[in-house]
Amino acid sequence: MSGPVNWLSQIAAVTKFGLLSMPQRRGSVAAAAFGIAGVVAVLVGVLSIAAGFRRAMAASGSPDAALVLRSGADSEMVSGFLRDSTRIIADAPGVARTPEGPLASAELFVIINLPKISTGTDVNVPLRGVERPALKVREGLRIVKGRMFEWGRDEVIVGIGAAREFDGLQVGDRLKVGRYLWPVVGIFSAGGGAADSEIWSDATVLQAAYHRGDSFQSVFVKLKSPDAFNEFKDAVTADPRLNAQVLRQTDYYAENSTAVTKLITTLGYLIASLMAVGAVFGALNTMYSSVSARTREIATLRALGFGSAAVVASVMLESIALALLGGVLGAALSYVAFNGFHTATMNWQSFSQITFSLAVTPQLLVQGVVWATLIGAIGGMLPAIRAARQPIAAALWEL
Amino acid sequence: MSEQATGNGALVDIRGVEKVFRRGAEDIQVLKDLNLEVPAGEFLALMGPSGSGKSTLLNLIGGLDHPTRGTVSIAGERIDQLSDHRLAAWRARHVGFVFQLYNLLPVLTAERNVELPLLLTHLSKAERRAHVATALAAVGLEHRAKHYPRQLSGGEQQRAGIARGIVTDPTLLLCDEPTGDLDRKAGDEILGLLQALNREHGKTIIMVTHDPHASARASRTVYLNKGQLTREPND
Ligand SMILES: Nc1ncnc2c1ncn2[C@@H]1O[C@H](COP(=O)(O)OP(=O)(O)O)[C@@H](O)[C@H]1O
Ligand SMILES: [Mg+2]
Fold this sequence. Notes:
Number of helices of chain A: 12
Bound molecules: adenosine-5'-diphosphate, magnesium ion
Number of strands of chain B: 10
Helix content of chain B: 25-40%
Largest sheet of chain B: 6 strands, mixed
Distance between the termini of chain B: 35 Å
Largest interface: A-B, 26 and 30 residues
Structural class of chain B: alpha/beta
Largest sheet of chain A: 10 strands, mixed
Oligomer: heterodimer
């Protein structure tokens, strides 16, 4: 034989004939391609939930922000501080300061029941009581509709995600908190972060409504710089008056999200794998019929001197081409259908809903196409071997 | 090649060939102790009843199958023991095939079909085009170069098949019932064409047929019977 160039041109030629004959087999080709498109769409779609969730969590914290919880508490739900402690924390070194005082917000975190618009069922929605610095502690937080609540008044503002997903949270609605009805006076955006899912009120107002005395659950602080974290952390943890732990907000939310993203990702892979098995058989079937429809053609090419390796490669390439067709279709479909799609899910750490939008990232699209390629390669393998093993002499006379 | 079978210079030299097919538990002996010499430049017709093993023999000569026993030498080269891989390369260089059902690729035009064997050579695109034009002219099909097989009559398809068979100027042209699927008139034209290729271009041709009308065009006819070759139809 004469070198790799010859070999490649053989593969190119044989592959071309296979691809050219695809339109004649369009029914079976389309069925297999749609099967693969389905796998890719489901895979990318489910994983885009995890990616969107992770993205929402990543947007929730900035590196120069810290969160203080009671020692041993792994979420705000089970944490608690008295005002004395929150003052000491606010005055600790490393906390950014303005003329009005330190950028630290002692906060309350409770859960209320609201119907989810999409399902009509009641779900847990976080209600957070904040102090004045809260708006400066969280970067990029702004009122997008209505106004800020007035300090000391029974009013709430609602995160843009919560307003979208849960019933009765539009400006002008009244929110039932215990025995009270609090007017919604504004909608705020926290740039896709966790706060978007929350309802906010004045911490002192919430304390009163929930008979919490003068206690809080967490302190959110803005640091002088990301580097000031250790200074702040050491000061707070070493202080004998406090029984507190300090977390970077980014770490806290990342940890918050891992359980959920892991579950969603596992689920996505599981469903997609099951579907992929079906799609492999679809590709296998299509390629078997492609090979058997061209038995005589392949034998003719072999008689003319084309090598069996070229036949194997061409059947594989044809199968992969078919799979890529489906993969690209599925990826495009999932992008159109899912990217930016708003939803809400349970955040197990806080036992409350978190709203976010699905993110069909470039990595996910690439992953989908890789899956399609693998499905095509696996599905094409046996038919390719059969095509190459066919005895030439007998196949030449077949109709 | 140490076991060079003959010094008589025959282009095709077959010695003691036996071919047994195994079908399930049953052995079918199709050829037994068969000898054949075909000198260069001959137009040999191979006749015999259906199922007598004509195609089997042609496949052995064309390197499409291995004999169970015996030697097949073409132009002094033993091909019976070549690996499948080497046989493929050998076929590309030495043999042109013409099939009863033409075996053209339906997705390619006549000229692209004729070009196929040239894809296995190192000829440039321009050289390939020139060879294709020559082959198409030799079979009188220049005006149909851009047509697809389905747009051609049976006779025209077989002309394209013959053009593909000769385009690499092979050592041997092997035809299995080349007129078997054609009407008398188209068949006659194809036979005339093969005859001309043999007489005017010196092509060595072995043609399987069961049509006496076809074998009459050949320079010699041999008959296959009970696994062996004879000079006469019956023994
Ligand atoms: N690949 C094969 N496997 C089993 N039997 C075969 C095979 N090829 C041919 N035969 C048998 O060998 C005999 C000769 O076949 P063939 O050479 O095609 O005959 P012909 O071309 O003279 O009609 C037939 O009985 C046929 O069934
Ligand atoms: Mg036959």
